[in-house]
Amino acid sequence: MFNGALDIVCFVLGSGVPTPVGHALGGLAVYVGGQYGEGVRKDWTLLGATLVAALLPDLDLAIGPFAGRSYHHYFTHSLGFAALVAGIAYWTMRRMGRASPGRDAGVIGTGYLSHIILDMLTKDTTPPFGVQLLWPLSDAFFISPVSIFSDVFRGSLALLFGLHNWLAMGREILVLVPVVGLLWWLRRRRAQLE
Ligand SMILES: [Zn+2]
Ligand 1 centroid vs 131 CA: distance in angstroms? Predict the structure, then answer.
């Protein structure tokens, strides 16, 4: 029961594997890269939606306590679900009267995908290892043979806020902030050249 309650705490904090900071940076990278060649313009709606999409797959942490078993890294971490999210994003952006709902949906869907890719690049110590990438076509789990990011400890609040997880978050920042910076720089440079 405690594990169930803790899963809800993790979900509220947005914690999965990597940390929510890593996933938010992944979403930010997609947003910045997605506007490549568009000049430097701020689109808060698209930024917000992309960040939400990048954190959304870990909604599955909230299923566990109700289902009585973990569904973490199952169907929400799949290409099928990413396509579904992109479809919903397209429909919503169209209804909102946005100028390019197709492009918006592409950025938001890629933001969702960034979460899955980051999870696959993260050390996984709990079976089944990896994510159910090809759901609903296959129930198999996939993980990258090379892990860049460290796993996140859960199981107790002391572990959740322990040194290991802070170091894991530090590594995500060290890897992903330069990626966001590089994409931002490329975008600015391109805008200046035009
Ligand atoms: Zn995840």
Answer: 8
Ligand 1 centroid–CA 58 distance in Å is 5
pLDDT digits (tens, 9 = 90+) for 16-67: 467 889 999 999 999 999 876 566 678 999 999 999 999 999 989 888 888 8
Is the Cα torsion angle 85, 90, 95, 98 positive or negative in sign? positive
C-alpha 192 to ligand 1 mean position (Å): 37
Ligand 1 centroid distance, CA of 96 (Å): 28
Q: What are phi and psi of 26, to 5 degrees?
A: -60, -45
Q: Cα(140)–Cα(80) distance, rounded to whole angstroms? A: 13
Question: What's the pTM?
Answer: 0.86
Cα–Cα dist 29/115, whole Å: 11
Whole-number Å distance between alpha carbons of 139 and 96: 35
Instruction: Sketch the domain layout of the chain as residue ranges.
Output: 5-193
45 Cα–ligand 1 center, Å: 23
Q: Ligand 1 center to residue 90 CA distance, Å?
A: 23
CA 77 / ligand 1 centre spacing (Å): 7
Condensed to tens digits (0 to 9), the pLDDT of residues 126-162 reads 888 999 999 999 999 999 998 888 888 877 888 888 8
- Centroid of ligand 1 to alpha carbon of 189 (angstroms): 33
